[in-house]
């Protein structure tokens, strides 16, 4: 059920997801658009750069919500196997992380800056007792606590480049979608999610060379740290959502990387 005011010429159909803010809009001519409520204002810059689907318009509703409309693209979301193999995933990450214009725009729209300690603190805050009692998870946490990366110059980061946020259009163009978690951080945060989940550890150096790092070995330890941090945070989120099946899957993925 749509719970906000909108143009009467468009009917809205909620799109399944964890935010409850995305809709497919259809007008009388059967045209489709992707509509999102209170999306990141960063979308406009990403659209111009070709990283996100084309922005069509932005409107404010009667109740104060801001709606963004982007072109509707038929296609499919990448599988976990796809993400680790595609060169265009690498190129989009490289473009995002090396763009000074995107970084400056994200600062202008109020982007949040986060260093490694902020991630560690967010996980530890209000950590459920059951997760504190899990000896394996606490060993991983202690490792991360003892190997905290040094602060770095932050860049624009997606914040959640998981496989279902990669959309491949029918025309073969790849886009990164769902920018609600965007932030200014060490690019290793994004890379840790991708490499930790979708790329064999032995293949990390070649992936990072394609990404443009001349000395990838110097970055692997930081990416390893952020990968573990990403898994812990997802495990915590799954626990709080009582999604224990997914939580156990995340723990199994973490154990492939952190073997204790």
Describe the overall structure.
Residues 45-211 form the Aminoglycoside phosphotransferase domain. This is Phosphotransferase family protein. This protein is an alpha+beta fold and 260 residues long. The chain folds into two domains: 10-72, Phosphorylase Kinase, domain 1 (2-Layer Sandwich); 76-257, Aminoglycoside 3'-phosphotransferase, Chain: A, domain 2 (Alpha-Beta Complex). The chain is 45% helix and 17% strand. The protein is built from eleven helices and ten strands. The protein has a five-stranded antiparallel beta sheet with strand order 1-2-3-5-4, with helices on one face. Helix 8 (188-198) crosses helix 10 (217-240). The termini are far apart.
What is the CATH top level name of the largest domain? Alpha Beta
Helix/strand/pairing category: alpha+beta
Order of SSEs: EEEHEEEHHHHHHEEEEHHHH
Number of helices: 11
State the CATH architecture of the largest domain.
Alpha-Beta Complex
Distance between the termini: 47 Å
Total count of strands:
10
Protein name: Phosphotransferase family protein
InterPro entries: Aminoglycoside_PTrfase, CcrZ_PhaseVar_Mediator, Kinase-like_dom_sf
């Amino acid at each position: 059920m749509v719970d906000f005011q909108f143009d009467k010429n468009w009917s809205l159909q909620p799109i399944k997801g964890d935010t409850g803010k995305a809709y497919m809009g259809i007008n009388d001519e059967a045209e489709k658009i992707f509509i999102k409520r209170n999306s990141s204002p960063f979308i406009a810059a990403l659209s111009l750069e070709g990283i996100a689907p084309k922005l069509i318009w932005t409107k404010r509703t009667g109740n104060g919500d801001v709606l963004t409309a982007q072109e509707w693209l038929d296609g499919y979301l990448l599988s976990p196997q796809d993400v680790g193999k595609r060169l265009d995933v690498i190129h989009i990450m490289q473009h995002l992380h090396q763009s000074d214009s995107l970084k400056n725009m994200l600062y202008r729209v109020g982007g949040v800056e986060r260093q490694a300690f902020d991630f560690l603190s967010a996980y530890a805050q209000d950590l459920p007792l059951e997760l504190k009692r899990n000896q394996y998870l606490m060993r991983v946490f202690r490792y991360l606590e003892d190997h905290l990366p040094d602060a770095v110059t932050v860049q624009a980061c997606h914040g959640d480049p998981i496989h279902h946020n990669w959309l491949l259009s029918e025309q073969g163009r790849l886009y990164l979608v769902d920018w609600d978690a965007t932030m200014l951080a060490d690019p290793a945060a994004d890379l840790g999610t991708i490499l930790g989940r979708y790329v064999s550890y032995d293949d990390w150096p070649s992936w990072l060379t394609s990404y443009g790092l001349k000395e990838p070995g110097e970055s692997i330890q930081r990416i390893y740290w952020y990968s573990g941090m990403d898994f812990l945070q997802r495990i915590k989120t799954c626990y709080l959502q009582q999604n224990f099946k997914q939580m156990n899957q995340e723990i199994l993925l973490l154990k492939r990387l952190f073997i204790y």
